[in-house]
């Protein structure tokens, strides 16, 4: 049963390589401009990694919304969908 659930997630993610590429693009953009040398950690790195994980599982709406929110919060311009 676990194998069926895992393969279902992989198949769902494979249905939309364009959305998966979009998630990866936004994640790379955030990573490029992310400030890692701060005293006050905000948890943004964990949020970005979790958003990418959601996309990899096929939960594109959830992952893309979170990545776009992080980019907007840090005032990082990103290309429209």
- The gyration radius over C-alpha positions equals 14 Å
| Low-confidence segments | 1-7
The largest pleated sheet is described as: none
Element-level helix/strand string: HHHH
Let me know the average pLDDT: 83
Beta-strand fraction estimate: under 5%
Query: Approximately how much helix is present in the residues?
Result: over 70%
Label the structural class: mainly alpha
Number of strands: 0
Characteristic terms for this protein:
0% strand; mainly alpha; disordered N terminus; 4 helices
Account of the protein in words:
Helix content is 70%, strand content 0%. It is an all-alpha fold and 81 residues long. The model is unreliable at 1-7 (pLDDT under 50). The longest helix is centred in the N-terminal third of the chain and has 17 residues, at 17-33. It starts with a helix and ends in an 8-residue tail after the last helix. The protein has helices at 2-14, 17-33, 44-56, 60-73. It is built from four helices and no strands.
Question: How would you summarize this macromolecular structure in one to three sentences?
Answer:
By secondary structure, the chain is mostly helical.
